[in-house]
Design goal:
heterodimer, A: 781 residues, mainly alpha, two-stranded antiparallel ribbon, 31 helices, globular, B: 483 residues, alpha/beta, Alkaline Phosphatase, subunit A, nine-stranded mixed β-sheet
Chain lengths: 781, 483
């Protein structure tokens, strides 16, 4: 039996448009099947290798029959066509796969045999295939067993934009792709969110700060058709945009304020962090943004700013433990850079190949060390000084001087007149030979390798790319590169929509998830590259799309049809990141310090967090809390000591910055409730907001409404007003009966006390604020 | 039903199950165990490989008394009279066999052997040799199993500690306790499954780091929760000034009304989950201080653990607290006690460390035994590596130092299905190499998981395309030490 010609398949025409670029009509088939499949037994009419077969092979078979030559059993590999179509090594009269004939294909017969010594995978692996998976294999073989290159390794081309019903108000191509997919699964998008919700969402997404009352009023009263777009433009130009965008990049770049091992000394990489914020604010193209970070020092006559940007590759942890073997740790740092490069730019888990060929992806151990070679040229030591000699960094370094911050580095917020040391990249004059390390061990070098990249992704053309980090950056930005643009637009998407078009934002390899909207992803990737890698333009397209502006209402029908909301028939409810929860609460109390950049600060922290873990050595043995305005800076500036990260942020799922982190978890725990209820930072905000409100010439109802609007960024409903009013009365009674309690409650925080006429009322308002801060909706964007 | 959808359904079922069951913390763990492969794997119901309940667990809970800094095996449980005989003589190259050295002794010209300054005698039915520094531990010789042949790959503190706690020297992998929390959950709805207690001795110390109790890539609810016996035993637990139980209760009730109306508007099940978490936090606020209050301990207890046991933050207090937490159903109680890094001044430092640790460690075992809990509680005592048989720095008859040594060191385990009154493994007469029955860190993890009823090869979590295990790709259960 032959595979039916794809073009003969009758399908909804709209669906076919746009997927041609993938060479996979079956992406459409996949989703058309998704619509009807309610039982697990549903098997697609046409089985596609990338969408149906490879996920099974990768998960269940590649471990022993995949790219890793050393782990390969029976000399059989199923990840390549040649391997799968070959005769069996131990029985040349039989073949693994005979296209069109499952019963003659060992790949199928070994799955269905009842002989336990024959059956695959071996029962001891505990990875049996399900009935439907076996049926997919059978059908695929009977339909011709066509192999395809892994989807993410095929360069993206711009698909045609599907047409959709004008009644759905598509604003830009994002909507065409999303709505056409929604239609194919029988769903409709939600109506537009109300203005208040929309404003809060877009403010939190673009600046990380909630809208002020003035902005709320302005937007509510602006009935012009482009009112929303005007707000978006204002927010994109706002100086806080860079801070918001930087958070995810700092996680990825494992930025922190300490060295990270053992006694964990202080480092001053914060000017690099200031640069990241600056780069986003200035809307540096993504090409420039990553080239400077990877190879700013190698540009012709590099500026100090370009060199500063290379701090990216020195943000990894560095040990100060006296007994370490230098080469062991130097190797560790190069490893960290290599792994970070893989995760951050390629979304491929390169680290798997440090010790052996990749089990799932076509990347070998040799490939790993060929990339490693680019980062192996730094003149550095494994050990930074001694903990007793506080060292903010090990060469190569630059000093940021007063002259710099008055001229070429004027975006750095340096108040102290002392120079600041920042670790940067600089290669030795002589190239250090890079050798494959057996099992990844620093003391077991074997064959020498040259600088190169995995050819399965895009060969490293020596005529086009220099053999150094600059060449590596150019390789990433080559128009034929299949990953760089897709990976970054997918991250931007997940930043705003709560999940990636490829859900596994850190893994575009074979074990990663397949894209839910492959055509949209490709369209965005090509658009982004062709726009000159314009980040703000891409962000604007996303947040002005009709898809983004939908309400959050989730009906039973939608939940049943698409429980994960992967087709975006409503806007997902997403809790903002740890840093932004703090910012939001401080902003509503008008306590937030709006300064950009500068040395990291140490706000309130429970006693003993640093002290109970330290050996007592080093500058960071004791936590010396800051005072004054430094207590009210944005969360992004909170000091991160890696061995004892700020506890309130960690509880709220912030990164430990131990290594490159692509995607924070979102958990829901009782410790989070305790932070929001008892953290002095939050209590202080409740107190200051109460005191300020208490002094306003408003009646109780007006005060309550004002507080509600400040914290939740919308007007309360009538029933909410009633609830507030009732609770307020109850608290008035409580504090009237117990003035002492009111006085104690109002002591929260170091911020100056604002005298009010009525202590009871102020305490009751503080109680209201505390409750408002804890409402689930408050920290949802 | 496609995989993602199925995963989501199971997620919902799981959440439903948890919230209905009114569990908190560990509850999600139980759920993730039940539905593990749906949630994190990619497959169908028929391929549910469960680590748990394959066989009956011998231990239900673990208390790990980690001796941070690495106590010398030669001054604790590995008696080597030859070193006293050869005191000052050079370590034979045939014994060292090219073992790599730390940066602290790598440049030393000579490696003079140094014998223990402390006497050893035999104890219990097994005749275990125990140093005179530890009379109380000697008194429980019939209850413990001493493993003399532990060995590790790391030669410095940070990687060695990280290896012991997470199964890998580098990288942010989940710690032992996080794996237990993930795999088994908590037995108590008001307490986390995994708690951490910190103390510092008077010897040369090495710090600890939060990555030692990290959840790694597991959900953050599996992170170790640091407990102290101070005023605020868990971070942010205490109500602020001017708030009491009643006002807090009222606030939670108001909060629930607003959240419930959000749920009606948006239909997001996370909102209900959040309401439950607030209730759990409220219960913790009363359950935890009650448990950590050491002010009401009886004289008998104080006598057993020593007077320090009512001084918050001491090792003795942490041992007592560990017993109380464990008794209340905390799955994994992890202690760290600093001060064992005896590069120099060993005789003096070891004496002080032993004074702080000996009595309370033994008391914990005795206490569990008298309460009938030792059978189901695994107690582990030991550090991250051993110490060299040669002297670091100048040799001095009264005082000397020992550098880090990875090739053999001693730990002990008790209860929880471990054979009592046993000494396992043999080292050479120099106390440098293992002669018989080596136990690697992976073997140790495999054995501990086995005692908890978990097949170490099957407790996995799929992260970035790979299924990770605590034992990485190695580890064999040491059956000989299992009762």
């Amino acid at each position: 039996m032959k595979l039916p010609s794809l073009t003969n398949i009758t399908l909804n025409k709209k669906l076919i448009i746009g997927v041609l670029s993938f060479g996979i009509i079956s992406t459409a088939i996949y989703f058309s099947v998704g619509k009807t499949s309610t039982t697990e037994a549903a098997i697609p009419d046409v089985v596609d290798f990338n969408y149906h077969v490879r996920p099974i092979l990768s998960d269940k078979c590649f471990k022993c029959h995949g790219p890793d030559a050393k782990a390969r059993k029976a000399g059989l590999r199923l990840d390549t066509e040649e391997g799968a179509f070959a005769a069996l090594k131990d029985d040349p009269t039989h073949h693994v796969v005979i296209p069109g004939d499952p019963m003659a294909s060992a790949m199928y017969t070994r799955l269905i045999t009842e002989d336990t010594s024959e059956i695959m995978p071996p029962p001891s692996n505990k990875l049996p295939l399900s009935k439907s998976e076996i049926e997919i294999i059978r059908k695929w073989i009977s339909q011709g067993a066509k192999y395809k290159k892994h989807w993410s390794f095929i360069a993206a081309t711009r698909p045609e934009v599907p047409e959709v019903d004008a009644d759905l108000h598509p604003k830009n191509p994002i909507d065409n792709f999303v709505f056409s997919k929604l239609e194919s699964v029988g769903l409709e998008p939600n109506e537009e969110a109300n203005k208040e919700a929309l404003l809060k969402r877009v403010c939190l997404d673009l600046t990380g700060l909630p809208p002020t009352l003035e902005l709320q009023d302005k937007f509510l009263n602006d009935n012009s058709p482009n009112a929303y777009e005007k707000i978006v433009d204002e927010l994109l130009a706002n100086k806080h945009y860079g801070e918001k965008m930087a958070i995810a990049w700092l996680d990825l770049a494992r930025y922190a304020d300490s060295h990270g091992y053992q006694d964990d000394g202080y480092r001053t990489m914060w000017p690099w962090r200031d640069w990241v914020i600056h780069a986003f604010n200035q809307n540096y193209g993504f090409d420039k943004f990553i080239t400077w970070q990877l190879a700013g020092d190698m540009l012709p006559n590099p500026t100090k700013e370009q060199i500063l940007a290379t701090g990216f590759n020195r943000n990894h942890k560095i040990t100060q433990e006296g007994g370490i073997i230098d080469e062991e740790y130097r190797t560790e740092y190069v490893t960290d850079r290599t792994n970070t490069f893989g995760k951050a730019f390629l979304a491929i888990t390169l680290e798997c190949c440090k010790c052996h060929d990749h089990k799932y992806d076509p990347v070998s151990q040799k490939d790993y060390f060929s990339v490693f070679a680019f980062f192996n040229q730094v003149k550095e030591k494994g050990l930074v000084g001694d903990i007793s000699l506080a060292s903010p960094g090990d060469p190569p370094i630059i000093k940021v001087t007063n002259e710099d911050v008055q001229s070429v580095l004027n975006f750095i917020n340096k108040k102290d007149t002392n120079d600041v040391t920042v670790m940067v990249m600089q290669d030795s004059l002589n190239i250090r030979a890079t050798r494959i390390l057996r099992r990844g061990n620093y003391d077991q070098p074997s064959d020498t390798v040259d600088m190169a990249t995995p050819a399965s992704i895009l060969p490293f053309n020596r005529n086009k790319f220099e053999k150094n980090r600059l060449g590596l950056a150019k390789w990433l930005l080559d128009p034929q590169h299949p990953l760089t643009s897709r990976v970054y637009v997918n991250r931007l998407w997940s930043e705003f929509f709560g999940r990636g078009l490829v859900k596994t934002v850190g893994d575009f390899g074979m074990q990663g998830e397949l894209p839910t909207h492959p055509e949209l992803l490709d369209w965005l990737a090509v658009e982004f590259r062709e726009s000159g890698w314009d980040i703000k333009k891409m962000v604007k397209m996303m947040v002005t799309s009709t898809t983004y502006k939908q309400s959050e209402k989730r009906t039973e029908k939608k939940f049943a049809a698409d429980p994960e909301n992967k087709y975006y028939s409503y806007f997902p409810r997403i809790r903002v990141k740890a840093e932004l929860q703090r910012d939001l609460i401080l902003t509503s109390a008008r306590l937030l310090n709006e300064e950009i950049g500068g040395p990291s600060v140490k706000p309130y922290q429970p006693k003993g967090v640093w002290e109970s873990t330290t050996s007592g050595r080093g500058e960071l043995a004791k936590y010396r809390q800051d005072t004054g305005y430094k207590l009210y800076r944005r969360g992004i500036y909170t000091f991160i000591k890696r061995t004892a990260p700020p506890p309130a942020m960690l509880i709220m799922d912030a990164s430990t910055r131990d290594q490159c982190e692509i995607n924070r978890m979102r958990t829901n725990t009782p410790l989070q409730a305790l932070v929001l209820m008892n953290d002095p930072q939050i209590l202080e905000a409740a107190r200051v907001l109460a005191q300020r409100t208490s002094n306003l010439n408003l009646n109780a109802e007006q005060k309550l409404e004002r507080l509600f609007r400040l914290v939740l960024c919308r007007k309360p409903t009538e029933s909410e007003k009633a609830l507030l009013s009732e609770y307020f009365k109850k608290e008035m009674q409580r504090f009237t009966a117990n003035k002492d309690m009111a006085n104690k409650f109002l002591k929260a925080g170091e911020y100056q006390q604002i005298p009010t006429k009525d202590i009871t009322e102020t305490a009751a308002l503080m109680q209201i604020n505390q409750m408002l801060f804890n409402i689930d909706e408050t920290t949802i964007k | 039903m496609d995989n993602q959808e199925k995963q989501f359904r199971l997620n919902v079922t799981r959440r439903h199950f948890l919230t209905k069951a009114g569990l908190g913390f560990g509850s999600a763990a139980l759920g993730s165990m039940l539905f593990k492969d749906q949630l994190f794997g990619s497959s169908d119901v028929q391929s549910l490989p469960l680590g748990v309940a394959q066989f009956a667990p011998k231990a239900k809970r673990i208390i790990y008394l980690f001796q941070n800094g690495a106590p010398s095996q030669l001054e604790t449980f590995d008696y080597k009279p030859l070193l006293n005989k050869m005191h000052g003589e050079e370590l034979p190259a045939s014994i060292r066999m090219g073992q790599r050295l730390t940066g602290m002794t790598a440049n030393q010209e000579k490696f003079p052997l140094v014998g223990s300054t402390f006497g050893f005698s035999q104890h219990g039915k097994s005749g275990a040799w125990i140093s005179s520094l530890f009379p109380n531990m000697a008194s429980i010789a019939d209850d413990i199993c001493i493993v003399k042949t532990m060995n590790t790959e790391a030669i410095n503190h940070d990687p060695a500690l990280t290896f012991f706690q997470t199964g890998a020297q580098q990288g942010n992998r989940p710690s032992m306790g996080a794996w237990m929390s993930y795999g088994l959950g908590s037995e108590n709805a008001n307490l986390p499954a995994y708690t951490v207690l910190l103390s510092r001795g008077r010897g040369n110390g090495q710090g600890v780091y939060s990555k030692l109790w990290t959840n790694g890539f597991l959900d953050s609810q599996h992170q170790g929760v640091v407990f102290s016996s101070g005023e605020d035993p868990v971070l942010y637990l205490k109500n602020p000034e001017g708030q009491d139980r009643t006002s807090r209760r009222d606030m939670l009730d108001e909060l629930a009304k607003f959240n419930a109306s959000s749920f009606e508007n948006f239909g997001d099940p996370e909102i209900n989950a959040r309401i439950k978490q607030y209730e759990m936090s409220y219960r913790m606020q009363s359950a935890v201080p009650e448990l950590t209050d050491l002010s009401k301990e009886t004289d008998a207890t104080i006598k057993m653990y020593g007077p320090d046991c009512i001084v918050p933050g001491t090792y003795a207090a942490n041992c007592l607290l560990a017993r109380k937490l464990s008794e209340s159903g905390v799955r994994f109680v992890q202690l760290y006690h600093q001060g064992w890094d005896t590069h120099g001044n060993l005789a003096n430092d070891m004496t002080m460390q032993a004074e702080d640790v000996d009595r309370a460690s033994a008391a914990l075992v005795k206490d569990l035994k008298q309460r009938g809990l030792l059978d189901e509680t695994l107690v582990i005592w030991g550090g991250e590596f051993g110490r060299t048989n040669y002297c670091q720095g100048k040799i001095d008859p009264v005082n000397y130092g020992r550098d880090h040594h990875p090739k053999c060191f001693s730990i002990w385990m008790a209860g929880g299905g471990i054979k009592p009154g046993m000494v396992y493994g043999e080292t050479d007469e120099f106390g440098y190499n293992v002669v018989k029955d080596p136990v690697s860190v992976h073997d140790f993890h495999a054995t501990v998981l086995h005692l908890m009823g978990i097949n170490h090869e099957m407790l996995t979590y799929k992260h970035l395309g790979r299924r990770y295990r605590l034992t990485d790709i190695a580890g064999q259960v040491v059956n000989s030490i299992i009762a």
